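FORM 7B: Structural annotation worksheet

SECTION A. Query
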Amino acid sequence: MIRIAPSILSADFAALAQAVDGIADDADWLHVDVMDGHFVPNLTIGPPVVKSLRKHTAMYLDCHLMITNPEQYLEAFKAAGASGCSVHVEVGCTEALIKQMRDLDLDVGLAVNPDTPFEAYEPYLADLDLVLLMTVFPGFGGQKFMGEVVPKIRRTADAIAAQGLDLAIQVDGGIDEQTAPIVAEAGATIFVAGSAIFGADSPSAAARRIREAGNRAA
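SECTION B. Predicted structure
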């Protein structure tokens, strides 16, 4: 079943509560992009915004930590109300980070850049709740979907099935009505969309259209 996770990176931060309210009925999760200006060339938000969101909504808060030193902040994100966090395999210390998230009772995600090979994260699949396969290079919203990641999505889905794992495949980057069927057919189940939802005249209708497009191909 397809789940939709609108990325608040593309929402109006001056009216974030209203933006969340506007898509709540048509979204499953809220995706929170956290960037440190070091691991990626952009600087966004941190635990205080997650804390504010948690006061306003009971939705699942899915925090994507595009940061060099996530071990220093996982406890703060948990305390702020994060439901789950995804750290990047490229940061290293993956086993220790997985254990830290488990100890904090956070859902465990592992994010993977478009040019990172399957072999770099395959050993950790059995320890995860989700694997986030980036379909753009992280750092900025509104980028064009990279179709060359699709074979990696399919290979990951095949490995999950072969190992009998209960593990979601999340995709993020250029996801819209046109690309949703492509990644759904390959095995993705959680769709992060930012500008395609919050940049639409009706964000809720855009979220419904993406879900319907993905479900038709799943």
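SECTION C. Observations
The longest strand covers residues 29-35. DSSP finds nine helices and eight strands in the chain.

SECTION D. Sign-off
Analyst initials: ____
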